[in-house]
Design a protein that fits this description.
The protein contains 4 helices and 15 strands. The chain has 275 residues and is an alpha+beta fold. Strands 7-6-3-4-5-9-8 form a 7-stranded antiparallel sheet.
Length: 275
């Protein structure tokens, strides 16, 4: 389950009477100097503005600007910053075939919320588990305890005994825009931890029914597979904007993945932790 006007003044050049060759030479020299000055000014402007870009978005009906301090920050930079905040989750479950019960395993993903080991994941990732372990990107494995879970909103909170962990910073999912970049990090197939896929936000408030429960989710075309559930969706500022929890499947289906908006996830997590 998973826009500036270029206002140019006219320049009048007064010259004395010279031979055609002299005039042509003078004009050529003037043009060359003008081009050089323009190039220098252009580069100076670029250098002065390098690293800054203003992005407009809407908040509460007003258009506001957000200043990004690093225009050259790309997806690889984001991944380097946030990848350690995403973990692999492995569960031990009881599986029944109607005649007898045996031990089985299931896997998913999670996102670290605090440096001392609070982790958010999906309820369906840990549902029915009697043993939960968490593996960090660096390979360290911890036994996790279940703090609490909300089945209706598909959110669960785990805790491991660890310190100085890299944790995610929540973004404002109400300020998202269709078409912006979405970076997904998780543990597809339960064996490929730390996998990064990238796409865009295809929709912001898609009503989806999952196991009879209606949810309002972010939609993305980033590749999502079984095991990505509970993993993080990040924006280009490295902020957590969603918790991956579902995808549409079928032979004719491509690029239909879904995530719980970060504001919803944060609200549910806060309720669980405050309970």
């Amino acid at each position: 389950m998973y826009g500036n006007f270029d206002d140019r003044e006219k320049v009048r050049v007064q010259t004395r009477k010279h031979s055609g060759r002299t005039i042509a030479l003078a004009v050529s020299l003037f043009v060359a100097i003008a081009i050089a000055i323009g190039a220098i000014a252009g580069w100076a402007g670029y250098a002065a503005g390098k690293g800054k870009v203003t992005v407009l978005h809407s908040e509460g009906g007003e258009t506001v600007s957000r200043l990004s301090e690093d225009i050259e920050r790309d997806i690889a930079d984001v991944v380097e910053t946030v990848a350690d905040s995403v973990v692999e989750i492995n569960c031990t479950v009881r599986v029944s075939n109607g005649w007898f019960v045996r031990e089985g395993t299931s896997a998913g993903s999670g996102v670290i919320l605090s440096e001392d080991g609070t982790i958010i994941t999906n309820h369906h990732v840990i549902d029915g588990a009697y043993g939960i372990s968490v593996r960090l990107r660096g390979g360290e494995t911890y036994t996790a305890t279940l703090v609490g879970s909300n089945e209706e909103n598909d959110i669960a909170i785990l805790r491991i005994s660890a310190e100085n962990l890299t944790y995610a910073t929540f973004g404002d999912s109400d300020a998202l825009r269709v078409g912006q970049t979405a970076i997904v990090i998780g543990n597809p197939l339960g064996t490929l931890g730390g996998t990064v896929t990238c796409g865009i936000l295809s929709a912001l408030d898609r009503e989806i029914s999952i196991d009879g429960t209606s949810m309002h989710l972010l939609q993305t075309d980033a590749s999502i597979n079984s095991g990505n559930s509970g993993g993080g969706m990040f924006d280009l500022d490295g902020r957590l904007i969603g918790i991956v929890n579902a995808k549409s499947t079928g032979t004719n289906v491509e690029g239909l993945g879904f995530a719980i908006p970060s504001n919803t996830a944060l609200q549910i997590a806060t309720t669980i932790l405050g309970a």
